[in-house]
């Protein structure tokens, strides 16, 4: 399966506190049993203390390991978020460049079309000077008449 561990595999790996705590717990049990068999109270009390201390140390080890797992998960999630953010930024920049290029091409096309139509209109006006002059005069007269009526 490679270097990547699944959750089940990781549960069997113990850290130093878990191992020492388990050994301390076993040692305390042994002392408690020895004290009970020998009929001596002091080894029993010391054994019980070692058991409690061992359980606490093992629990601390498990808790520390879980906290490290949570930290690593958080770090991995944050790393993935940064990576995704960079990907989205790059994608947005690429789309922006594409839209810019498309708008630039379309603008050139519209400018060329307007230029072509303007030249065609100017050529038509040049070929029909009399008609063009009459239309301009009529438009000027109509505009002057409309403006003079408003007063």
- Low-confidence stretches are none
Rounded radius of gyration (Å):
45 Å
Mean pLDDT: 90
Query: From the helix content, strand content and strand pairing, which structural class follows?
Result: mainly alpha
Described by strand count, sense and barrel closure, the largest sheet is: none
Description:
- InterPro entries: TM_Gly-Cys-Arg_CS, YjbJ_sf.
- The chain crosses the membrane at residues 130-148.
- With 151 residues, this protein is mostly helical.
- The protein has one domain.
- 90% of the residues lie in helices and 0% in strands.
- It contains four helices and no strands.
- It has helices at residues 7-11, 16-38, 41-127, 129-149.
- α2 packs antiparallel against α3 (41-127).
- The N and C termini lie far apart (93 Å).
Output the keywords.
single chain; 151 residues; mainly alpha
In short:
By secondary structure, the protein is mainly α. The chain has helices spanning 7-11, 16-38, 41-127, 129-149.
Task: Tell me the layout of helices and strands.
Elements: H1 7-11, H2 16-38, H3 41-127, H4 129-149
Protein name: CsbD family protein
Organism: Methylorubrum extorquens (strain ATCC 14718 / DSM 1338 / JCM 2805 / NCIMB 9133 / AM1)
InterPro entries: TM_Gly-Cys-Arg_CS (IPR017756), YjbJ_sf (IPR036629)
């Amino acid at each position: 399966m490679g270097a990547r561990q699944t959750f089940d595999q990781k549960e069997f790996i113990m850290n130093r506190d878990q191992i020492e705590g388990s050994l301390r717990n076993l040692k305390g049990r042994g002392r408690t049993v020895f004290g009970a068999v020998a009929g001596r109270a002091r080894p029993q009390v010391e054994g019980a203390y070692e058991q409690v201390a061992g359980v606490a140390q093992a629990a601390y080890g498990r808790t520390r390991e879980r906290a490290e797992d949570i930290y690593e998960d958080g770090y991995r999630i944050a790393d993935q978020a940064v990576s995704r953010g960079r990907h989205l930024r790059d994608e947005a920049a690429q789309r922006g460049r594409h839209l810019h290029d498309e708008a630039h091409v379309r603008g050139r096309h519209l400018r060329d079309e307007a230029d072509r139509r303007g030249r065609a209109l100017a050529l038509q006006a040049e070929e029909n000077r009399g008609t063009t002059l009459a239309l301009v005069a009529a438009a000027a007269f109509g505009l002057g008449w409309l403006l003079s009526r408003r007063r």
